Amino acid sequence: MTDDEYERRVIDVLTSTHPGWHYQQRDLPGLPRWWATRYYPLRADQRKAGARDVLGRTTLHRLISALAHHDEILHRLRY
Q1: Which of 1, 42, 59, 68: CA 20 to 30 A from 35?
Q2: How far apart are CA 44 and CA 50, in angstroms?
Q3: Which structural domain range is residue 16 located in?
Q4: The model's pTM
Q5: DSSP state, 13?
Q6: Are strands 54-57 and 21-25 parallel, antiparallel or unpaired?
Q7: What are the pLDDT digits (tens) for 50-73?
């Protein structure tokens, strides 16, 4: 399996486990390589708790970790 095939599979898994996000790879110097952008904006209380509309990380592994942390934040806000 090539790196591109592996990355595509990881993105497919992310799309199925975190469907509220759009995933994108950008190769711009000095910026994170992998980005997740929410389809719908967060509420003010969600932002205040630390949730974000956009996450950028240098690797897919770090992006996955950031999404998991993000889910924990939102889970704590549910009543």
Answers
A1: 1
A2: 10
A3: 3-77
A4: 0.86
A5: H
A6: unpaired
A7: 999 999 999 999 999 999 999 999
Q: Angle at Cα 60 formed by Cα 78 and Cα 43, nearest 5°?
A: 25
For residue 1, the SS3 value is coil
The CA distance from 51 to 67, in Å, is: 10
The amino acid that residue 15 corresponds to is T
> Mind giving me the DSSP string for 17-72?
HSTTEEEEE---TTS-SEEEEESSPPPHHHHHTT--SEEEESSHHHHHHHHHHHHH
Total domain count, the chain = 1
Label residue 40 exposed, middle or buried (CB < 10 Å: 0-12, 13-18, 19+).
exposed
Do residues 37 and 15 touch, judged by C-beta distance below 8 A? no
